[in-house]
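pinned: reference chain
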Amino acid sequence: MLGRSAGERMTFLDAIKATGIVMVVAVHVLSRVQLAPAMQEGLLFLVGAVAVPLFLVSDGFLFAHQWTGKDNFLYGAYIKKSIRRLLLPWAAFSMLYMLMRFAIELKGLVQETIVLGKSLSGLATVLYYSELSHHMYFLLSLFLVRLGTVAVKPLLRYSGGVWLGLTLSYIALYVSSNPKRWFFPGADPVLLALWGMQFYLLGVVLRKWHEQITLTAGWIGLTGLGLATLGWFVLSPASSFLVQLVYLVGIYGVLLKITAATGWKFTMGHDTMGIYLLHAPYIVWIVVVVLSSLAPPNHLGAVVVASIVTVALSWGITKVLGKYSVGRSLLGQVPLQEPGHES
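pinned: its structure tokens
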């Protein structure tokens, strides 16, 4: 069984988050290199299909783990700390990247202008849609998902079967309603929060069934990964959400088995926010440019090396910033409310 201690809990969740952040970095590396079309498509599925969803699964799992059967949940305190963990880093790094982009455009180093010539409302739109760095939407979307915990918490008392039904119902509603048609093109945080809620709820379901899954985690994981691979080859793009869900369950099972069998700590999982904020757009760009000057970046090895170097540099900077209170605040390193504590 999964114990209630923070150390035991974080070991497993850190494995999920560490896997997710490596995948996120790899996605951004792939966007800057040109491989053979079949390889590019396959790698984008491998790392892109579940890169961000893994973080949402982790968040939903942790919320259910901490608060099922607990009556002292303070919604206001939870949201206040979520503001410090998500909105403050989003605002700080969005402004930093805007200033850097302004300087780059002013020097004429890029052809496309995103900042220069924009009105205040135009700049607000740039920030809202994360046009400076497309991955920044996630912080806003996750905050909106966490706002929904006011509805999630009272339902935690229900069984895993009920939660499975609720989650499948939400997924069916999301897919059938096609909410993209209600939004303008772009990374709208509200739309992506609605999308992300599918995986957050899946995280709650996995926590509800965790003890049962643990007994055969390895088999469940391998079966999930096998079915996801098969689905990618044979199913139509309209069924991609099914492949995502099965892929997530597969990774969950495999990582659960690995952490139980090896005792690895996956300490990178403690610093995923910093790596996420720092790696793009500029660190990954610099790494790819430097590697491209040494060898053509049109093969798998270049993707692997660029991903490893980008993760290492971003993680190193995160560790340095984490030594200072200001740096920790900028990276959102604030513990969320734990059971038994009011703040």
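why pinned: Residues 6-330 form one domain. Residues 1-9 have pLDDT under 50 and may be disordered.
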